[in-house]
Specification:
There is one protein chain. With 194 residues, this protein is mainly beta. Helix content is 10%, strand content 48%. The longest helix is centred in the N-terminal third of the chain and has 14 residues.
């Protein structure tokens, strides 16, 4: 029986290529839960900014975002990506300007991932909506091997968050409808050269 297991393992390892990429695709909407401020209604008396997923039970204060940890592919990443969609509806009677800014931070940056210290903005976009109009903000970003921002991601994990800003004299309903991160690793890159 041991011989059979050893031969099976050997066959599986020889079938792997040095170009094999392991992908961890994480749906953050399902992990963050309903209490993280992933949807809401805002009254915009001029301007307002909220930070999601909410980590400190106060949407309007910058915080440490969401800690993504426990992924097996976080050492020496081959690549990283994020895809995010925010559905927005201008529910008031005035024009609305709405923007989203995706932030990536190190796991240690637990107090404010929006201050530019040990964190970075990877994607941002702004839209304008008339009263009663709906739209969406789609953000996407990728980092490839050699990008200095990959240093923010370690075996301790990383933090993510989105700053949502609205301005005008109206009200708005927002909802994150997609929020996923993708970490890529080439397992054979982890084996040190002889």
């Amino acid at each position: 029986m041991k011989k059979f297991l050893l031969l099976t393992l050997l066959a599986a390892l020889t079938a792997c290529s040095g170009h094999t990429i392991v992908v961890a695709d994480v749906d953050l909407l399902s992990l963050a839960g309903d209490t993280a401020g992933l949807s809401g209604d805002l009254t915009v008396p001029g301007s307002i900014q909220v930070y999601v997923p909410d980590a400190d039970d106060n949407l309007t204060t910058p915080d440490g975002g969401y800690l993504v940890d426990g992924l097996p592919t976080l050492d020496d990443l081959y690549g990283f990506g994020v895809e995010l969609t925010v559905a927005v509806e201008n529910t008031g009677s005035g024009p609305l300007t709405f923007s989203a800014d995706f932030r990536l931070a190190s796991a240690a940056d637990s107090t404010n991932i929006y201050d530019g210290l040990d964190d970075v903005s990877l994607a941002s976009k702004t839209i304008t909506l008339d009263p009663g109009e709906s739209g969406q903000v789609e953000l996407a970003a990728t980092l490839e091997r050699g990008d200095a921002n990959l240093a923010l991601i370690s075996d301790q994990g990383f933090r993510v968050g989105v700053s949502l800003a609205a301005s005008g004299t109206t009200s708005v309903h927002y909802q994150l409808t997609a929020f996923r991160v993708i970490a890529e690793q080439r397992p054979f890159d982890l084996i040190p050269p002889p």
